[in-house]
Automatic annotation (TrEMBL):
This is Riboflavin biosynthesis protein. Pathway: Cofactor biosynthesis; FMN biosynthesis; FMN from riboflavin (ATP route): step 1/1; Cofactor biosynthesis; FAD biosynthesis; FAD from FMN: step 1/1. It comes from Breznakia blatticola. Keywords: ATP-binding, FAD, Flavoprotein, FMN, Kinase, Multifunctional enzyme, Nucleotide-binding, Nucleotidyltransferase, Transferase. Belongs to the ribF family.
Amino acid sequence: MKIFDIYANKHYQVMNKTVACIGFFDGVHVGHQHLIKQTVELAKQKGLTPACITLSREPLQVLYPERDIKTIMDIEQRLQAIGSYGIQQCYLLHFDQAMANVSAADFIELLKSLCIDTIVAGEDFRFGKQNKGDVLMLEKQMPTKIIPLVELYGQKISSTTIIEALEKGEVEYVSSCMNRYYAIDGFVIHGNKVGSTKLGYPTANIEYNPFIVLPRVGVYIGRVIYEGKTYRAMINIGHNPTINRRDFLSLEAHILDFDQDIYGKRLVVEFSKYLRYEKKFNSKEELIEQLDNDVQSVRDYTYEIRNV
């Protein structure tokens, strides 16, 4: 997928015409996927390039830097996911204070300069300074295809509902919303080695992006992807309250049937099912007994999503 960097207060003349979907696409959930598929199909019918228009950053992170605003995906994950559904060209709007101050009318003029044949937008899409522009305004100025929101279990799917579900540990619901397991990637760093030296359960400590949503504290069934291979894993998010409690949240994965030196290597951690909340045990032996049960739950689990 080709990336075109777009900045505020500049106009561009792109040579090839496109059909372009527009949105932030955080999580690239099934609603986004439907929007993207509609874009690819319409572009095919018209003999044009399927494209997307998205932002480099979550607007609230720029407008309210003092808030702890987190996203489901970082920009690399988001663009990779968008491209995997057939989008060939991406207009990446660099969101800063200048872009935040672009009026709705000027934003439309910016879109017109990108040589877009048709815009594909969700019915709730807003744009321009203070979100004053909507799809009704947009379709008066440009050919626009408006796509209704997608529902799951009677509820409209949105990035906000997915974030709320993650904070509750409802990763199975999130998997349904995204058609894939929720995943966090990062590099393996050195920990205190309690898992390997005291418990018999070595873990990979993952240095994760602090702007990405962590699921609820607890133990999860999941998978780890390393160098293209997928492994069953017991995942823990928490403070390690029984032995060497930490003040910060750590992300650790015990990878089953795995014995490799992976310090400094990149892993992808996928969350399949919430097992239990993290708790302080009365003894090391009690903790080990629980970990034995947790690992057996991981071995017995049937993964419903097979594509990585």
